Amino acid sequence: MKTFIKSKSGTTKALGVLMLVIVTIASGFMFLNFVTNNVDSMKTVFNTQMKNLLLDHFSANITHIVIFLKNTANNVVEIAQAYVNNILAVLQEGKAIIAPLTTGIATIIGSFKEGNTYEIKLGNFLSVDLSFTVTI
After folding, report:
1. How far is CA 37 from the centre of its chain?
2. Contact 76, 97 (CB under 8 A)
3. Gap between the terminal Cα atoms of the chain
4. I need a surface site. Which of 66, 91, 102, 112 has the fewest CB within 10 A?
5. With contact defined as beta carbons under 8 Å apart, do 98 and 45 qualify?
6. Which residues contact 63 (CB under 8 A, 6 or more apart)?
7. pTM of this prediction?
8. Ordered DSSP codes for the chain
C-alpha cells in the first residue's frame, strides 16, 4: 500500500510541473500577441504622422544637407534615422523633433561632392520613410 501512495505522490508532482509549463507557454503567447498588436498600432499611427510630414525645402553644401520639414499633424514627429544613398547617415544631435503645426529642421552631416545627386530617406525605428533626392 505504501508503494501505491508514493507513486501517486510522484504523479501529482509531475502533473503540477506540466501545468506550470503549460501556463508559462500560454502566458508567453498572450504577451507576444499583446506586443505585436501594440507595434502594429504604432506603425499605423506613425504612417499617419509621416503622411502629414511635408518637405518644405532643403539647403545643401559639401558638409551638410539641411532639410526643412513641415509637420501638419497635431502630434510631435521624431526623425531618428537618415539614409543617404541607402547608407546610414549622421543626424545632427542624433535626431530631429518636429512640433505639431510647425516647420522643423533635420540636418544631415557628411561629406558630399558638388554635382552629385543623393537619395535621402528620413525615417524612424518603425521603418517608415520620407524619400526625396538632393543635387548639390
Report:
1. 14
2. yes
3. 92
4. 102
5. no
6. 109, 110, 111, 112
7. 0.56
8. -HHHHHHHHHHHHHHHHHHHHHHHHHHHHHHHHHHHHHHHHHHHHHHHHHHTEEEEEEEE-SSEEEEEEEE-SSS-EEE-EEEETTEEEEEGGG-EEE-TTSEEEEEEES---TT-EEEEEEE-TT--EEEEEEE-
